[in-house]
Design goal:
Layout (H helix, E strand, L loop, with lengths): L4 H27 L29 E9 L2 E10 L34 E13 L6 H7 L1 E18 L5 E4 L3 E4 L8 H10 L5 E7 L9 H16 L6 H15 L7 H8 L2 E6 L5 E5 L4 H10 E7 L4 H13 L3 H22 L3 H17 L7 H11 L3 E7 L5 E7 L2 H10 L3 E3 L9 E5 L1
Parallel strand pairs: 5-7
Antiparallel strand pairs: 1-2, 3-4, 3-14, 4-7, 4-8, 5-6, 8-9, 10-12, 10-13, 11-12
Helix pairs in contact: 3-4, 4-5, 4-6, 5-6, 9-10
Length: 441
């Protein structure tokens, strides 16, 4: 295709020149006192008088040339031997046409209507209060979480196909005749909820793989729903998008997860969430200065420790113990909620160093909730971090593995120490857009 582009551009320029030349010749004829014909309407299929062609010169016809542009089929309409149309189109001009010459509807083909779209949905880091967003806790005590969307993304593509099945591409490849046969549980639940017809391809890509503690499951669900609504040409607000994603994961699929991941993926930014006993969620931005945002982006460092393999079992244990009224678990989560509120106060007051110190307290409470939260390697890396420039830190996510996040007073020293242990840093900035459609073809 790339080899054909120069010739295509030359042909488009030729089209423009032939139109300009015809305009000049027609105006000269009109200026000589010759009787002007009615201007051909851009909606006339065969000229101004039905099947009769307009009389504007010795050769009267329009040439409709079919091109291939970017893999899409389209028409380039060149009235090089016909009259110019001086009425402007209310819509967008197709490629290769001056403002005064616009093709009629017959140059539009169903084959070039939008077929494919892509959504981009951010992953997240938890700033404070993580764990209090599970229904097993907030329905009894209310929950509070501060979460931050980062510029690491989940991408979901939807594309109409010419087959009568469903093509699902993620870490595996599925081709299914019916939605009920789709093995990916989230995809199956979303497609069933929206009664999507066959002839559809879904593709998912991510900057960071699942199982790393950055909320990829919630981002996937939100991104897929955003794509489905765009595919159906329906609008949905961020809060409704988050709530539907949470309902699918928690109520339909029965996953032992909270609502933090879905809500931050939909809203983006540095955001506070209050999870209430009636299942409502109050959403508000973290009211921090730009200086504090820059400080956090410079001093919060993420290091990959390996894939998390026990998040589901740890969250299931937390849910079971909370529902059973386990006093130790409930008190731990109450203290975690209060810690989240203190972190909000410190950050909004412009004291990020205090937040860094509270990260250590957060980590100690988190690891006390389950013996499977950490291991000897993670404890050793954490101790190395706080001895080499980190004020405090914690493991992001609920399982043994994923990312260690530190707040560093001396970022270069911390990077050097972690590199000495073979840990790779993942640099990031904050995302303020939330889930959005980035391509609509």
């Amino acid at each position: 295709m790339a080899e054909d582009e120069p010739s295509l551009h030359r042909e488009v320029q030729d089209d423009r020149e032939c139109v300009a030349d015809r305009n000049r010749r027609w105006h000269r004829q009109s200026g000589d006192g010759r009787q002007q014909q009615r201007q051909p309407d851009v909606h006339d299929r065969d000229g101004p008088a039905g099947d009769q062609e307009p009389s504007f010169g010795p050769s009267q016809h329009e040439s409709s040339q079919r091109r291939r542009i970017g893999g899409q089929s389209c028409h380039l309409w060149c009235p090089s031997l016909g009259a110019p149309a001086h009425r402007e189109s209310a819509g967008r001009r197709p490629l290769g046409f001056p403002p005064s010459v616009v093709p009629g509807p017959r140059s539009l083909s169903p084959a070039v209507l939008p077929r494919m779209l892509i959504t981009r949905t951010p992953l997240r880091i938890s700033i404070g209060g993580g764990g209090t967003d599970l229904p097993s806790f907030y329905r009894e005590c209310d929950g509070f979480v501060i979460s931050a969307a980062i510029n690491k993304y989940m991408f979901i593509g939807l594309n109409r196909t010419f087959t009568d099945d469903y093509l699902i591409k993620y870490s595996q490849l599925e081709r299914r005749r019916s939605v009920a046969d789709i093995e990916h549980r989230i995809v199956r639940a979303v497609f069933e909820a929206h009664d999507l017809e066959p002839g559809l391809e879904m593709v998912s890509l991510a900057d960071i793989p699942s199982g790393t503690g950055l909320g990829s499951s919630g981002a996937f669900t939100v991104g897929l729903l955003r794509a489905v609504y765009a595919h159906k040409r329906e609008h949905i607000a961020a809060e409704a998008l988050a709530e539907e994603a949470a309902r699918i994961e928690i109520d339909v699929l029965g996953e032992p997860v909270g609502k933090q991941d879905q809500y931050i993926a939909a809203h983006g930014g540095l955001t506070c969430f209050e999870f209430r006993a009636d299942d409502s969620v109050a959403v508000s931005p973290l009211a921090v200065s730009q200086e504090t945002v820059h400080d956090l982006e410079e001093r919060l460092l993420l290091f990959f420790t390996g894939y998390s393999r026990s998040a589901g079992s740890i969250l299931a244990d937390q849910r079971t113990r909370s529902e059973r009224g386990d006093a130790q678990m409930l008190e731990n989560l109450r203290q975690t909620k209060q810690l989240g509120l203190r972190i909000r106060e410190a950050l909004e007051a412009g004291r990020p160093e205090d937040f860094g110190r509270m990260m250590d307290e957060h980590w100690q409470r988190k690891r006390a909730r389950s013996s499977g939260m950490t291991n000897d390697d993670i404890d050793r890396w954490y101790a190395t971090g706080v001895s080499n420039g980190a004020i405090g830190g914690k493991l992001v996510g609920a399982g043994t593995g994923g990312f260690l996040m530190f707040y560093a007073a001396d970022p270069p020293a911390l990077r050097a120490a972690m590199s000495g242990h073979g840990l790779t840093e993942t640099r990031f900035t904050f995302d303020h857009d939330g889930s959005t459609v980035i391509v609509r073809n």
